[in-house]
Amino acid sequence: MTQAYEAVIGIEVHVELKTNTKIFCHSTTEFGGDPNHHTCPVCLGLPGTLPVLNKKVVEYAVRAGLALNCQIANFSKFDRKNYYYPDLPKNYQISQYDLPIAQHGYLDIEVDGQTKRIGITRLHMEEDAGKLVHQGSIVSTPYSLVDYNRTGVPLIEIVSEPDMRSPEEARAYVEKLRAVIQYTGVSDCRMEEGSLRCDVNVSVRPPGRQEFGTKTEIKNLNSFRALQKAVAFEIERQIGVLESGGRIIQETRTWDEARGITVSLRSKEEAHDYRYFPDPDLVPLVLDSQWIEFIRESLPELPDQRRARYIREYGLPAYDASILTLTKEMSDYFEEVLQHYNMPKAVSNWMMGEMARLLNANGLEITQCKITPGRLAALLKLIDQGTISGKIAKTVFEEMFANGKDPETIVQEKGLVQISDAGALAAVVEEVMAANPKSVQDYLGGKTQAIGFLVGQVMKATRGKANPDLVNKLLRERLQK
């Protein structure tokens, strides 16, 4: 970023809560289904219907608020946010305005080894709107269809303070927020299904100036990659406008992934008056302090706590602990492997190395991995037992990843058992030394690194099945003679 400017970034995150039914009715919250089939007269806003608050939504909102270090309100209320849009059947959204259920929280993030605290202004409950299904991209569609299945699905909206200063900090904040919410169990936070969505407010200003610049809002970013790239582009776009003598317009923009740019959707130059007022069909929400404390005591181990435990109890480096606790699924997988094979660093190395490589290459989550924790543990035991080498283990791992077979079966089927017979390997060592006299002379002349080439030739001759430690030992003994 140009040093003459500083970015100011705030993020609003909408999280769908993992309840069985919607916030004010009994319609299912199940993802998918035929359009407009997960609906009822209440969530469609038909005349004469009345909302009834789902208690589980309140419990989940309190759990999330406590996990985000918020103050939970004993008294809050629901309000009507009035606006017209095709996906809003009542022409108002039931939300919370001046008295939200949670306020004044924070999250600590880490970027480039530096820890920074990001304030959370508020967390409130609301109902989701429907979904416009565009026939093409949002900026080029000739028409759009409306699916009301999502209408009334319970949401919490989490509004940050404008404390972030870079695309990297914005991404770290949302990644950390997603992890915390996942650990609480109140949402699956699947961005690809829309259960976690981000709206990012971006402005720039000269460093040291207290006043904010004019902000733009980037709507509905649904991946960490898109979030980081969109924020980076928008910062540079605004700097370019200002340096060319232009003026930033307050507007809503969208991210065009294909072109790698943000695109204007609509102006927000005029203040939008939503005419909030208390919802007359819902009584104020009064929470008992003992119930709030009961929920606090029931919170599970959260990412920061688990990360600290991995460092303290398992002796893992801080980097390993951070990666392994970034998602609850990854962390739970790691812990289950340890139940079968209690060597934390070895397990961490394989999960962050071969497993991460194959998951990323195939666009999969760890929950979709065919290798069970028990079978990964079994593979590592085969290495320890000397049945296979580390190099062969990578071949076996790839086979396991592809078909889910247990490692013992793959080793036997493909004849990959490591050769640890000193007599058999001694003969191969003699052949390799005879075939490579220059390397032998180099080693004897003081170039000790030449032994690496000879080891490689023995491994090649045995198709990687020789025990590398034994090969090293035999070569050194033979060369010293």
Description:
This is Aspartyl/glutamyl-tRNA(Asn/Gln) amidotransferase subunit B. It holds the Pfam family GatB_Yqey. It comes from Desulforamulus hydrothermalis Lam5 = DSM 18033. This protein has helices at residues 55-67, 167-184, 224-243, 289-297, 303-314, 318-324, 328-340, 344-362, 373-384, 390-403, 407-413, 422-435, 437-444, 450-461, 468-480; strands at residues 6-16, 71-72, 75-76, 79-82, 92-95, 102-111, 114-127, 131-134, 144-147, 154-160, 196-205, 216-221, 251-256, 261-267, 277-278, 285-286. It has 15 helices and 16 strands. It has a nine-stranded mixed β-sheet. Helix content is 40%, strand content 20%. Helix 7 (328-340) packs across helix 9 (373-384). The protein folds into three domains: 6-291, no CATH class; 301-413, no CATH class; 422-480, Arc Repressor Mutant, subunit A, CATH 1.10.10.410. It is of the alpha+beta class.
